[in-house]
Amino acid sequence: MERKRVLSGMRPSGRLHLGNLHGALDNWVRFQEEFDCFYFVADWHALTTEYAAPHDIGGDTFEMIVDWLAVGIDPTRSTIFIQSLIPEHAELHLLLSMITPLPWLERNPTYKEQMAEITDKDLTTYGFLGYPVLQAADIVLYKAHYVPVGVDQLPHVELTREIVRRFNHFYGEIFPVPEAKLTEVPKLPGVDGRKMSKSYGNAIYLGDSAETVEEKVLTAKTDPARARRHDPGEPLNCAAIYPLHRLYTPAEELPMIEANCRGAKWGCVECKRHLLGHMQARLEPIREQRGLYRSHPEKVRKVIEDGIERATAVARQSMEEVRDAMGLGALPLGGD
Ligand code: TRP
After folding, report:
1. If 235 and its partner were Cys, which of 110, 152, 242, 249 is the partner (CB 3.0–4.6 Å)?
2. What angle do the packed helices 297-326 and 154-171 form, to 10 degrees?
3. If you take atom 15 of ligand 1, which residue's CA is the nearest one?
4. Cα 112 to middle of ligand 1, angstroms
5. CATH number belonging to domain 5-188+298-326
């Protein structure tokens, strides 16, 4: 039986952090066992907000793909590519824009939220409003069945489903209606206890050296009630360290960790050192792989070239079906 297809993308944000690893990449890696996976860099999507001053999109794309490879996205099983190098995304975006009613885009909660929150950029553009139409094109171009995303992206997948239904209704059953695959991980706090995010400066990166990880962990916030060594603490109130224990420390050790905190048997430093043992063991192989790929950019390039070739074959096939269904692309021969 043919394996079902999974597709997901990330905007090029450069080096990835532990929040990205546990929020998305761990799942991406797992899906490779079961599905035919397509993973891509959504660099056009980055331009919808960064158009006035694009950061180093090429460099950030490279660093991000290096991180994907380092955590175990396997280019022999998954197709890895870059949106802007496959112009079929743009063609399909245009065609889907013909059938997408404006009110569907205007009532999109993500759109409304970002319009309200992002005040330092002018987002009153055609491209930004059409963000989910481009995302729909990304998804259906490969006839994906499942789209792994975080909750923030659910409205976009829902819109994709509506656009697909409308398309299939007008032109015939060309595309499967995709389903979101939600990542169930709670948001990982950064070292200051707020959500881990590049923009908060509280992130631990996959590419951080062992020393940097150690320094960040040792200065991370814990339970504010533990002002002194002998004050008892509560793991559930621990800002940054206990959440990391839950990810890195084997489950059978957690009761001991909790007891040592609640009974003030350990100081936070001992607790952090214990965590570091487990964390470094998990992160070291990733760092090593990262180092290998970064010193062999030609390997990364080859992965991307192969991915583009495979993705292009699928994209071209889909576009032939789409043009045909919409009555486009045939040379008018005239006569009767
Ligand atoms: N909008 C997604 C995000 O910001 C990125 C993205 C673009 C995407 N196209 C996609 C995700 C298609 C899944 C499928 O995270």
Report:
1. 242
2. 40
3. 10
4. 17
5. 3.40.50.620
